[in-house]
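Predicting holo structure, heme C bound.
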Amino acid sequence: MKAFREIRRNAVKAFRETRAPMRPLICGVLILLAAAVHGQSIDRALPVDARGPADNPTTPAKVALGRLLFWDPLLSGNRDVACASCHHPRFGYAENRDLSIGVNGVGLGDRRRFAAGNTIPFVKRNSQTILNVAFNGIDDTGAYTAAKAPMFWDVRTQSLEEQALEPIKALEEMRGHAYPEDRAVPAVVARLNGNPEYQRLFIAAFGGASPVNARNLGRALAAFQRSLTANNAPFDRYMRGDRAAMTASQVRGMRRFERVGCVNCHSGPMFSDFKLHVLGVPDNPRLTESDSGVERTYQFRTASLRNVELTAPYMHSGVFQSLEDVLEFYDDVDSRRSGRARNANVSREQLDPLLRRLRGVDDDDVDLIAFLSALTDRSFDRTVPDRVPSGLAVGGKIQQGK
Ligand code: HEC
Ligand code: HEC
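Done. Tokens:
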């Protein structure tokens, strides 16, 4: 049933798209074929507003508080790392380095290093962008449930409210050796409680007798991140009816994206089904142990492709430097000659069937790359606060030499 509806929708869409006499027919047939094989298409812009869960509606006071918390290294054990240390507006709220350096790091992005005498390991994965995380979990009908939104490369946490406390507890991200894991959040809450400015801001945002608590800390960080949307990319404008918003090459790339089968996993308005798949992406050589993903099966969540142009390097392990490298990876799986998993711990049989169904990937497909750049919206909020209530360095030790 669903597949049939898709086919009809596509055919109607193709007819509307062009007025040239023969093209609707040719296009329609091609898309019908693609849809019949794959049953997926992309035809939906991101919503204009991001909804929070019922128990945490977004308000300006929460967003303002969340922003300060996001930039304040007071949330880390040694007061040296902020959320913004690894999710920086300069890099589309991700980072231009393969694996994150948290505790004991100095500098920003690919210039970030461990300070002398370091005993802290790298964070084992590549930092994800938090632009549009408000929409994590959105399906191809545009529906999503903020309280159940999947988080992280391995979907180990649900909702931004819950996710926000995890980095505070993680040894290599923000905790360090300052306190044991189960004391991390209470210790940070106690610091916030001891700061009169934070006390005032929590009262303004949440009211109540003692609003400075772990729950509201998560809620404020969530509300701020939900405000970081970038939903006016050329693709969004095109889908809302502005047919001049994408170039001819980008439109060709979009069709290619559907035809070769990228859309089977990168579907819906976020270009992710938010499901787990085995691709056999290589491990990062900096790690001492292979990262085997969910349940040691090498499953990872489909990455959103929104703003992907801004967030190199790529994949959970950050091993691909460019989008061309990513296409070469898919091309390699596609090619009959090798058709192998690139990660030595993954057998060909383990690879996701949808991956093995890719057909016609070309690693210098300029149209496909052009299409991926049609998913970029640079108009997002890049505000860096002038100061944070703790008086510590804004963003942590991200200025070289400080
Ligand atoms: C040391 C670097 C670092 C710091 C500090 C950090 N993060 Fe992250 N963040 C990452 C990495 C790496 C991932 C992916 C981790 C994984 O999937 O295992 C991530 C993932 C996320 C995600 C999930 C995005 C998605 O699409 O699933 C959110 C949301 C997030 N971080 C928010 C925060 C917040 C809020 C803070 C501060 C409380 C923070 N991060 C601090 C590196 C960092
Ligand atoms: C079988 C499902 C599947 C198919 C088919 C697929 N992808 Fe992916 N894609 C994923 C998953 C899962 C990840 C994350 C994998 C990881 O990090 O280990 C990913 C990651 C990516 C990334 C990296 C994003 C980032 O932020 O790191 C890009 C770019 C990408 N895919 C593009 C494509 C293109 C282009 C195609 C078609 C040629 C395609 N994908 C086909 C599932 C798929």
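The chain has a mean pLDDT of 91.
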